Amino acid sequence: MDAELRRSITTFLQNYVDKCRVMVVGDIMLDRYFYGNVTRISPEAPVPVNLIGDKKNVLGGAGNVAHNLARLGCKVYLAGLFADDHHGHLLMKKIQKKGID
Question: Which residue from 30, 45, 48, 72 puts its CA 20 to 30 A from 3's CA?
Fold first, then answer.
């Protein structure tokens, strides 16, 4: 990346990104990460048996894009569908917590 482009990007991020309004439209997903210890391989199939010690839920898909833009300082509007169930409620809490409309 040349110096002029780098300066332009830096200027934009420092002075103008908080004035941006962005609409993100797409699939809103809940990405789930499971952490644990693999102690053996299952005898029924060649897959690891994992004793889960911790898990983490984060915004995925279009929700991840909206989250990243909000972290940059943009005003973000998110449009998409998700279910009216436990996972959908987790998504809505995460979206609201990030200040995404």
Answer: 72
